[in-house]
Amino acid sequence: MVMTDLVTITARGRYFDELEVGVVYQHRPDRTVGESDNTLFSVFTMNPQSLHLDAHHSERTEFGQRLVNSLFTLATLVGLSVANLTQETTVANLGFGEITFPPPVFYGDTLYAETEVIDSRISKSRPDAGVVTFEHRARNQRGEIVAVARRTALMHRTLSGIGGRRVRGSRHQRYRVFHRFPDEVESECQKVASTDRQAASGSRTVTSLDTMRRP
Fold first, then answer.
1. Could you tell me the pTM of the whole model?
2. N or C, fewer C-beta in 10 Å, the chain?
3. What phi, psi does 75 have (nearest 5°)?
4. What domains can be seen in the chain, in order of their start residue?
């Protein structure tokens, strides 16, 4: 079979217009945490806490072993969400709200991440972008929630909402808005939004996204 019309599939995150409040995105892959992860992260961030680095001391605590640095857990939780939500679709991270770590994470635990869209609004100062509040949640292999973090991000808008299209050029010109949005890309984004709406009316869970772009 000869393909006469080459189609390129590129993974990306979701634009503001594609994020619907109440939808839960389950992220892949998952991440098993090892001793080297914890030690290197703590050393690189100048954190000498014995609970992370001293095995003998940690054995005498109520936990009986070293704990994984909670900031490593947080960074991994947010990192696991990037490919599914914000890869090439975010302007910037605006800040974090409440962050909790119910039980600790230990060596050998596997982190499973999911994100719920809590709130969204069009930016007052940047009409080409929107402000989205995410709630990131991490579970271990036993299904216990080990981390919850609320985060606000400024996300690029797309579709006809801004009456233009985005083109790829230099890093500084990458998201300039032009006079119209290509029909094929608009159709693609509408399909993504439709999929999310269907998920919201059913299981309210979305697991992955691949985007079709024609060169």
1. 0.76
2. N
3. -60, -40
4. 12-33+68-213 (3.10.129.10)
